[in-house]
Amino acid sequence: MSLHQHENTAAAPHPAHGTRPLLDVRSVYKRFGGVEALKGVSMKLHPGEVVALAGDNGAGKSTLIKTISGVYQPDDGEIHFDGEPVRFETPEAARGHGIETIYQDLALADNLSIGANIFLGREPMKKVLGFIPVLDRKKMADAAKETMARLDFHVTRMESPVARFSGGQRQAVAIGRAVYWNARVLIMDEPTAALGVPEQRKVVSLIQTLKAQGRGIIFISHNLHDIFAVSDRIVVLRRGSLAGERRLSETNPDEIVKLMVGG
């Protein structure tokens, strides 16, 4: 199966045009024992939109993304995906719907190539002599080349182990894997942390490319500069509750910090 069979390449209209949300989180609660980690949080994500999740440590950001991506199930409230109510019992079920999470550690196999990382756990096989299954290395290499080209990200050493790549290049490999498997919603957890400024810019540019392809992106960052560089809307959490939501054009970093700390 070629990459193009995985993809819907038409860019979706901007959310301002009244499109149906890709993701609609409605009054979600999550409790751990006596602790309410999420207290009726709601948020929407449209095709071709970047929504930043901001908040201090303990605000509920990680719990919210893990509830969206099937690591946790909500205790109350609903999650709708593409207009249908969903309940993901596992992260695999969320991925099957096209929700991919790229965590800070990226979950890459350092000793393997880009292609091998794209297919990690889902390796393509071909038959030799009609019956001996072997890895289809050509398919993996072709997918790597095509996926990286789609992200306008060019590395010359396609067969090199990803351990040799820079932080920004590794981030691109993790994004490429999600794109190859037709992610419609990408949740990116601190994607620019521990990167130098030129690499941060490259990741911001990758996010703009994904946005232009009509994918929805939830962007989690402590870096307000990056949040203001890529987001359309900012959803602020504080102590498990929704502290506020602002369109980028109608706010500034000072207001977002005040919402985060409750000032």
What CATH first level would be assigned? Alpha Beta
The tally of strands reads 12
Helix content: 25-40%
Order of helical and strand elements: HEEEHEEHEHEEHHEHEHEEH
Strand-pairing-aware structural class: alpha/beta
What is the CATH topology classification name? Rossmann fold
Shape: globular
CATH superfamily: P-loop containing nucleotide triphosphate hydrolases
Largest sheet: 6 strands, mixed
Q: What is the residue-averaged pLDDT?
A: 87
Secondary-structure arrangement, i.e. CATH architecture: 3-Layer(aba) Sandwich
In spatial order, strands of the major sheet run 6-9-10-3-11-12
Low confidence ranges: 1-17
Number of domains: 1
- What is the overall number of helices? 9
Q: Whole-Å distance between the termini?
A: 53 Å
Protein name: Sugar ABC transporter ATP-binding protein
Organism: Segnochrobactrum spirostomi
Family: Belongs to the ABC transporter superfamily.
Domain ABC transporter: 23-259
Polypeptide structure, described:
InterPro entries: AAA+_ATPase (IPR003593), ABC_carbohydrate_import_ATPase (IPR050107), ABC_transporter-like_ATP-bd (IPR003439), ABC_transporter-like_CS (IPR017871), P-loop_NTPase (IPR027417). Residues 23-259 form the ABC transporter domain. This is Sugar ABC transporter ATP-binding protein. Belongs to the ABC transporter superfamily. The protein is of the alpha/beta class and 263 residues long. The chain is 32% helix and 27% strand. It has 9 helices and 12 strands. It has helices spanning 3-6, 61-68, 91-97, 114-118, 137-150, 167-180, 197-212, 224-230, 253-261, and strands at residues 23-32, 35-45, 50-54, 76-81, 84-86, 99-102, 125-128, 132-135, 185-189, 216-220, 233-238, 241-247. The strands form 3 sheets. The protein has a 6-stranded mixed beta sheet, sandwiched between helices. The chain has a 4-stranded antiparallel beta sheet with strand order 2-1-4-5, covered by helices on one side. Strands 7-8 form a two-stranded antiparallel sheet. The model is unreliable at 1-17 (pLDDT under 50).
